[in-house]
Design goal:
Elements: H1 2-43
Length: about 45
């Protein structure tokens, strides 16, 4: 029973970790994209 609960807890945390990481990655990509675009706008 304890092992089962531990596995469930672990799985939940892994899911939270992955979704958070994806969110961070998307945010970083978006910021990078805007940054590149602003540089293009300055130079053009």
């Amino acid at each position: 029973m304890l092992l089962y609960k531990t596995i469930l807890f672990y799985q939940k945390n892994v899911l939270i970790y992955h979704s958070t990481r994806d969110q961070v990655k998307k945010t970083a990509e978006t910021k990078f994209y805007y940054y590149i675009n602003s540089i293009k706008n300055i130079w053009l």
